[in-house]
Write the structure tokens for this entry.
Amino acid sequence: MNPNWRFDTIAVHAAQHPDEKTGAISQPIVPAVAYAFADAESAAATVAGERAGTYYGRYGNPTTRTLEHKVARLEGGEDCIGLSSGMAAISSALLAFLQQGDHVLVTRDVYGGTYNFITLLAPRFGIHSDFVDCTDLEQVRAGIRPNTKALYVETPSNPRLTVLDLRRLSELAKDHGIPLIVDNTFMTPYLQCPLELGADVVVHSATKYLNGHGDVVAGFVVGSASTIEFIRKRIAGDLGQNLNAWEAFLILRGLKTMGLRVRAHCDNAQQVASYLAGHPLVEAVYYPGLPDHPQHGLAMRQMRGMGGMVSFEIKGGLKAGQAFINKLQLAMISFSLGDPETLVQHPATMTHFSIPAEERLKFGITDGLIRLSVGLEDPADIIADLEQALCAAGSLTGEG
Ligand code: LCS
């Protein structure tokens, strides 16, 4: 592979070659679970890791392996493992560094499922955590304890779009000898490569922009070869979180258009954010591409584009928010994000419902907060839909 290739070329070509027998350009799907060995010695060597090869579906698959090589190349990591969901990737990455008696420092606003794993399941295994405002490096420094074994962040965060300084956080983590784990789901490697900025591990929900079509649940961990090997053997392998060949094929297909799609998501989101910022019924808009976003300058330096997610507060709180969402005709009320369709959701009652109300407020997740995953439709149609729904919500609630 040409080392000078740029992102879109890598996304199409990295790790993929026409099939030797048939010349097929698209990746063959290999659904096999078991693989025949020529002799007992090669079986033993493969299982021992002394010889490359696949031996059992739970520990790897040839179609998935092609995808893992491609994602590792896109993120600039040594190796990658594909897993059955973003949560499988997040929990595996954390379990790779944490054991009983350890502590993890976590940024304040993270995806609700991540919060649940860290606060509900991990403590049952003696792993403890603190949530701190990672925009404030002094708070992070003060939060590190002798038994802190990882710093975990999401940037921009779900759902408040808070942007964190990955270079400075990784320097701080290195000073304390702990790994920095970054959830890069909202950005994709097209917009941000945390490993280049000093992070040690990247996790993804590939369910979102990487696959990009809303038809696969999957995740990735990218990091050093030894971290990925440990996850493959001891965590994903033994817990059974493998990514199957069919879904790997769909993600390989989705990845080929990732640059195109993400550029369009960013363009549409910027237009939607600017529109919302000028609307009288809108109290505040959270989008890193707006000049009044608290980390706009950092976002412009750190990210190659501002992403497709826009959150905003509607005047009139929960009642106005629900009235607005109910009036949308194009945007769909739905979980997930990064799909071609514009999706809208209410974090306080949907994605972040499991976080206790007082904690939610500390994370900036108010009852009036609405999150949009801006899709690939014509931006004029998306904005027209928002316009009519805001107008209808305004007259229903008497706001505006
Ligand atoms: N990381 C982030 C930033 C996410 O937004 C999600 C899911 C995950 C990890 C977990 O990925 P999964 O296991 O679902 O592949 N976020 C969702 C959301 O905002 N709405 O529905 C799911």
Q: What stands out?
A: The pocket of LCS is lined by residues 85-87, 90, 111, 113, 154, 158, 183, 185-186, 205, 207, 217, 219, 335-337, 351 (CB under 6 Å). The chain has two domains: 7-255, 258-397. Residues 7-255 form a domain with the Aspartate Aminotransferase; domain 2 fold (CATH 3.40.640.10).
